[in-house]
Amino acid sequence: MSQLRLLPFRLGPQAMRLLATRDIPMFRGHRMSSGPPTTVPSSRSGVSSSYMEEMYFAWLENPQSVHKIRGHHVAQLDPLGILDADLDSFVPSDLITTIDKLAFYDLQEADLDKEFQLPTTTFIGGSENMLSLREIIRRLESTYCQHIGLEFMFINDVEQCQWIRQKFETPGVMQFSSEEKRTLLARLVRSMRFEDFLARKWSSEKRFGLEGCEVMIPALKTIIDKSSEMGIENVILGMPHRGRLNVLANVIRKDLEQIFCQFDPKLEAADEGSGDVKYHLGMYHERINRVTNRNITLSLVANPSHLEAVDPVVQGKTKAEQFYRGDAQGRKVMSILVHGDAAFAGQGVVYETFHLSDLPSYTTNGTVHVVVNNQIGFTTDPRMARSSPYPTDVARVVNAPIFHVNADDPEAVIYVCSVAAEWRNTFNKDVVVDLVCYRRRGHNEMDEPMFTQPLMYKQIHKQVPVLKKYADKLIAEGTVTLQEFEEEIAKYDRICEEAYGRSKDKKILHIKHWLDSPWPGFFNVDGEPKSMTCPTTGIPEDMLTHIGNVASSVPLEDFKIHTGLSRILRGRADMTKKRTVDWALAEYMAFGSLLKEGIHVRLSGQDVERGTFSHRHHVLHDQEVDRRTCVPMNHLWPDQAPYTVCNSSLSEYGVLGFELGYAMASPNALVLWEAQFGDFHNTAQCVIDQFISTGQAKWVRHNGIVLLLPHGMEGMGPEHSSARPERFLQMSNDDSDAYPVFTEDFEVSQLYDCNWIVVNCSTPASYFHVLRRQILLPFRKPLIVFTPKSLLRHPDAKSSFDQMVSGTSFQRMIPEDGPAARSPGQVQRLIFCTGKVYYDLVKERSSQGLEEQVAITRLEQISPFPFDLIMREAEKYSGAELVWCQEEHKNMGYYDYISPRFMTLLGRSRPIWYVGRDPAAAPATGNKNAHLVSLRKFLDTAFNLKAFEGKTF
Ligand SMILES: Cc1ncc(C[n+]2csc(CCOP(=O)(O)OP(=O)(O)O)c2C)c(N)n1
Ligand SMILES: [Mg+2]
After folding, report:
1. Measured between alpha carbons, how far is 735 from 837 in angstroms, rounded to an integer?
2. Which residues make up the environment of ion ligand 2, defined by Cβ < 5 Å?
């Protein structure tokens, strides 16, 4: 009996595959007690040794078979019956045995009726512990090889594996009450008739319909119902184009007329958003869950076309909502992400997002992923679109169970979704539901899929819609009558028709009604800022001193820090005593003061806790006790807001998206993402382009995220020098050619009108103020800060408390205040610059003794361009030649941005000469000497007062 490979030769191929798949782990259990003690070590993650033993013995028996615990490979997952869901029609010999191979197994049919003791690792017996081989095979087959394919045996936790087995193997688990079946049918009716309605009314419009996967609507609703039952009150959804309208209508329950009116080309926008409502805008809705009778808030996050880009954003928003509710375990707030099969496999950000899922400062305590696996991506066949068997294999890296299910079996789908929601709310880990379906039409409704998938679409044309199949089944078994079914359809069609009638009265589109994250109380009732002023950003001196003292201390008892760090803290104490700050201390003071005002501060990015340049040290590490840390910033005030500083995974796209989502949740938080070096932001370019620079224009959504981008030409070579200011400036929306009207509120209204703020601070005080202004402004805008490297320790780059105390503010421009400023008539050249080059210029001016002839003025805020201040400065030095000096190459940096704005301002009466490095392809030279030579060259030009003599502009 121990030789359970002795299979009866008259078994069907399915059962044979199945048994070969399942036999060893299932039936070796009884050998455990008599087997030799295992030498397999138990793993760190708590793998049970008996489970490992089981695997070990199985492996000893047949090294081929253990990893092929894969009923899912032979399950009937494809509703079309054409493709194998794992892209592999080959079934290895240990999974299937044809007649000619049976001799090898030496099987007798009589073996089928022998009874076997069931091991404790299986639940197929229910209350029985002995079953005939025939029944064992039948039950296993029905669990693992029909319309559900389970992948979970890679999970190295026996409790979790057993949990899944129990959910699927227990006899009768898939029996539904007739009430449940009727609800499912009604949901399918809505899903299908919604698509039909759109197709009837707008036959020539794209709508990225759900046909072929209509079951997604009941699937999502089941996940939400089950989660609500388990205590979830807030579900945050991210999804792409396919079926989005249907989700808005039937899951989020957006008013149908609000959806239908989007198809009216004459609809006028009442507000600033650039429309694009149907497939991209978000939604927020509080309602009662009808199944559980509990309140539930559903939000669908606005997303760009860029598939999967919204994933980390949803996770960040979810994390923030959990944080603000004190829901550290994710018991109240959860996320659901919907994916297309091609995008899920192809987009790297999916992988980056999975890797955030279990990190303490990034986990959302489990996400339910639903893949609309229609076995095609636009026109591309999955065999050309991925190298992994399933589109879902990416989820295996985090040990997420993956449930494949044939989408034409609605009951199987519903069951799987219910287990997935239960899994998430039991283990707080990710889970994937792979809805294996088809796409009834082309990529959009105007596309002809027969051009590229002729055979598949021949089959699809023959495919009976799932609603009809399911209705026929329920009618045949007597759960509903044909009349009831037809009435349900007529009822929903009527609802759609009535809404359609009402939608025609809608002439104005309010994009504000499509917000995924309303900020109650932040704006006035019309959604406008409550004022157009910004208070001063300085703080009382005693607050500066207090923060300085905490920043230079170790607030915990018996906590031994590194001696090098003691020196740094002593330096901070010394600065505090002398009423000065360096960069790190200024940042401390900005964060600390905001925390006192109840503003949560979160700083995330690679190595931000210490700081790439070892200047920050926000987390102290006990040198003697492992993992004992202290964050002094959280010891500032008794009732302060919490400070989170977290080293992220080595990702930019995923992490920046996450922080953007985090910043979306509330206006009352300062959320910062720091790049290790500024140039790395380009691996997150999609988030910058699609969300940060354009988010408000597209989706009327404010966001105050701060990007800290270390930048500066320090001879470190092309890779670590430039944060590419030119790119941010090129995307700034202020008009270079429009002469501004200098109203009283010019400074703030200019900030209100811009898409983002770009600054390059030259002093710690400036950095302090701009961070505080970010929160004190009556609206939110993304802030891009080019942060320094060598200035972090530059002896001259310090600020006095005088520049930070109450009454002081962020200076968008720091004018010359030396001898030149006292006799401007004598000044021959006024150099405008920004950032670190200022210190090079000042040093050079001093060495040439030109303090009276040359004025140097700094732009701290580059965009929006401080037209008003520059105008004043240029007028003050009316006889001086104007120069823009930058250390970046001419085709980079700021020149292309500032030049036309100077021209507009000066009425083309005075040139603004360029001084800086020549145009180049790479942002910096890799050769230190070449770096110094080019620096020397442009400094010489900057102070050669004859350099532009005779030149025309
Ligand atoms: C990042 C990105 N690249 C390319 C596209 C263009 N595109 C739109 S839909 C699509 C196919 C998506 O296939 P899949 O993920 O399987 O979703 P389906 O349309 O089949 O539901 C492509 C390539 C896109 N929207 N985003
Ligand atoms: Mg697809």
Report:
1. 26
2. 340-342, 374, 377
